[in-house]
Design brief:
Order of helices and strands: HHHHHEEEEHEHH
Mean pLDDT: 78
Strand order of the largest sheet: 4-3-5
Radius of gyration: 47 Å
Structural class: mainly alpha
Strand content: 5-15%
Number of helices: 8
Number of domains: 4
CATH architecture of the largest domain: Orthogonal Bundle
Shape: elongated
CATH class of the largest domain: Mainly Alpha
Number of strands: 5
Distance between the termini: 155 Å
CATH topology of the largest domain: Arc Repressor Mutant, subunit A
CATH superfamily of the largest domain: Winged helix-like DNA-binding domain superfamily/Winged helix DNA-binding domain
């Protein structure tokens, strides 16, 4: 019985079988050729969907159903040998948990790239929660734009700026013309100043004539009352 169990595990897929045997036993699962084949497909494909994994495994296990692949992936994730992540447009993807790595995810094409950096593996917990939480694994996610999408984004931004430049130029020229229409010309300014000066001179002359008329009236009234003329 023991020999049959060992032979089944050895036939389950070489290195994949050896990597899986201990963690499966620790969670009271046994190693099967199907589990080893699914795990091997995940390691080979990298970030793969259950359907992609199923297509690969069917080449060696044609009777394996997609439902069995889903169940196997859940088991392998539970024992810590694979990880799930969200891919383009929210798709479900799986990848091998080892070696420890982190991710760069493009916001445009949603492609996920792996990055390995020991400094990211040892990020310390904040002092406020240190001692209250046990960390078993770290995974850092970086979001941005991959080189291809970054070039396309820069090109699109440049095209928009070029397209907007003539419109801004037309608006500026229209504003300048409007301001020039509202601004008086030098000849018009001189005419306006001349008219203002003439009005002021006329007002002063009228005030002077009014004053002289008042004095004459006062002289006449005094001469009538006193029978003598107003001293000059």
């Amino acid at each position: 019985m023991q020999s049959r169990k060992k032979s089944r595990e050895s036939s389950a897929g070489g290195a994949s079988g050896r990597e899986l045997a201990e963690p499966l036993r620790a969670h009271q699962f046994r190693l099967t050729p199907q589990r080893a084949a699914v795990f091997r497909a995940v390691c080979e494909l990298g970030h793969a969907s259950p359907r992609q994994i199923h297509e690969v495994v069917r080449q060696t296990h044609p009777m394996l159903s997609l439902n069995t692949v889903y169940a196997t992936l859940e088991t392998l994730e539970r024992v810590g040998r694979i990880l799930r992540l969200t891919g383009p447009e929210g798709t479900l993807l799986y990848e091998a948990a080892f070696p420890i790595h982190h991710h760069l995810q493009c916001l445009t094409c949603r492609r996920v790239l792996d990055i390995q950096d020991p400094t990211l593996d040892e990020i310390p917990l904040p002092a406020s929660i240190r001692g209250r939480f046990t960390v078993t694994r770290r995974r850092v996610e970086f979001y941005g734009y991959c080189p291809d999408c970054g070039r396309h984004l820069a090109s699109a931004t440049l095209k928009k700026e070029v397209a907007r430049a003539p419109l801004r130029g037309r608006k500026a020229r229209g504003k300048d013309r409007s301001m020039s229409r509202d601004r008086p010309t030098p000849s018009a300014s001189r005419r306006a100043l001349g008219a203002a000066g003439a009005r002021e001179e006329g007002d002063a002359r009228a005030r002077s004539q009014g004053t002289q008329s008042t004095l004459v009236q006062r002289r006449g009234s005094h001469s009538k009352k006193g029978g003598r003329s107003w001293p000059r």
